[in-house]
Design a protein that fits this description.
By secondary structure, the chain is an alpha+beta fold. About 35% of the residues lie in helices and about 25% in strands. The chain has ten helices and twelve strands.
Length: about 300
């Protein structure tokens, strides 16, 4: 088979609520996640000797068994029962690494979709989702993408219908020298907010239902004004990470953003705009200030789907 290409989009969190702790030690979450048109590309070709190899145009990115692409490929081959399957994989990395944008998870999800096609496998979509959930909490969302309510650890998905008209867009900022440890962010959240955690499964269910009926979904549908974005991790990260504070202040200076927030555990930051033209105009207006402060920026539209095979 000829080489296949799979697009792996980034995501942002339009809502991230830490409800409490689960019996398995993970945090119970209520989120709204959104795919955006900032994508990595995976190029896949069969290998004659049954090896799985990964190359990347970012030399600082691991390409061994710690990479989710390799882990996804290995799992898919093991579940197929066909140990002779192999692939040469080349990753074009455009999503910044360690940014709270699920780039690694999206790449892993893209490997599942692309290798299923390359190897001629017939796993059902629910089976692929189950494999994705084993590999990472964000991976099921990255597989399906679009706009989704995400519950549990993030792997329980409920699709939100796309709005009519032009898609919303974001201006993203990230300082290349800045990083935030996700385990640290959740640990710090527990330290500072653990006293307010919900402990009753019925209370979890009530918060999930409240999110289903929230003004945010009306704002995304264009039937109401966009409310402020809630990110419980931003509350603990922003006071302790200077680049997050500086980037949020820059975005708040842009021309009439609909919302400004941090994505996931950071350190990427975003402002939502009515369309891509507005996001690009904001990027141009803030270009000098972003350069002076050392920030990289991207303007991109909301994306209605997750990973996808290129035609």
């Amino acid at each position: 088979m000829a080489e296949l290409t799979v697009c792996a989009p980034a995501k942002i969190n339009l809502h991230l609520e830490v409800l409490g702790l689960r019996a398995d030690g993970f945090h119970e979450l209520a989120m709204v996640m959104q795919s955006i048109e900032l994508v990595d590309a995976l190029h896949l070709a069969p290998s004659a000797d049954g090896t799985i190899s990964l190359r990347c145009d970012r030399p600082d990115l691991p390409v061994d068994g710690s990479n989710l692409i390799v882990r996804a490929a290995t799992m898919l081959r093991e579940r197929s029962g066909l140990p002779e399957l192999g692939a040469h994989i080349r990753l074009e990395k455009r999503i910044p690494v360690g940014a709270g944008l699920a780039g690694g998870s999206s790449d892993g999800a893209a490997a599942l979709v692309g290798l299923q096609a390359l190897w001629g496998l017939r796993f059902s979509h629910p089976e692929l989702l189950a494999m994705a959930a084993e590999l990472g909490s964000d991976m099921p969302f990255c597989l399906d993408g679009g706009t989704q309510l995400c519950f549990g650890r993030g792997e329980v998905l409920e699709k939100v219908p796309p709005a009519e008209g032009d898609p919303l867009a974001v201006l993203l900022l990230k300082h290349p020298a800045s990083s935030v440890s996700t385990p640290w962010a959740y640990g710090r959240c527990r330290e500072l907010r653990g006293h307010a955690y919900l402990r009753d499964p019925h209370a979890f269910a009530q918060r999930r239902e409240a999110l289903r009926r929230s003004p945010l979904l009306a704002g995304l549908a264009g039937t109401a004004a966009m409310p402020p974005v809630r990110n419980d991790l931003q509350e603990v990260v922003e006071p302790e990470v200077a680049s997050v504070r500086e980037g949020l202040e820059l975005l708040r200076r842009s021309d009439r953003p609909l919302a400004v927030a941090m994505s996931g555990s950071g350190p990427s930051l975003f402002a939502v705009f009515p369309d891509l033209d507005c996001a690009q105009a904001a990027q141009a207006a803030l270009a000098a200030a972003c350069t002076a402060a050392g920030f990289e920026s991207w303007a991109c539209a909301f994306r209605p789907r997750g990973v996808s095979l290129e035609p």
